[in-house]
Amino acid sequence: MDVYLLYPMFIMVLLTLVVGFIAVSVRIKSVKKGEIKPKYFRLMGGQELPDVVTKTTRNFNNQFEVPTLFYVVCTLYISLGIESSLALALAWLFVIFRVAHAYIHITYNHVVHRMLTFFASFFCVIALWVTLLVEMM
Question: How far apart are CA 104 and CA 101, in angstroms?
Fold first, then answer.
């Protein structure tokens, strides 16, 4: 079985944990600085947020969107016992682009750079699905 797909999946889990930690620490710092009232977090509304809080929160939420397709397709490869070096390469490319996307989004947030890394990762996950379908034939 292509259990090697577990490694890029695990790195994605770590990325989600790191981004989550960053998002929480940014929120705590913003509350301590008085930039956000703790009441904001009851309903996630009622005041403007500092950009860094918005960026980190959105990036954390983003880790549960397209990556879900990645986790499912990798799990299918593993559970169906399909070994594919192409799938493994695409999985690692997906992870690299997602890490780059998170870095860009959380730091300098250049929209074109972020968009390019997003679409590159999206292409990788779609290619993983197409490759899986071809392998199943």
Answer: 5
Residues of the chain with pLDDT under 70: 1-2
Task: Say which amino acid occupies 14.
Answer: L
Q: What is the DSSP string of the chain?
A: --GGGHHHHHHHHHHHHHHHHHHHHHHHHHHHTTSS-TTHHHHT-SS---HHHHHHHHHHHHTTSHHHHHHHHHHHHHHHT---HHHHHHHHHHHHHHHHHHHHHHTT--HHHHHHHHHHHHHHHHHHHHHHHHHH-
Q: What's the start-to-end Cα distance of the chain, in Å? A: 18
* The model's pTM: 0.92
Dump pLDDT digits (tens) for 105-130.
999 999 999 999 999 999 999 999 99
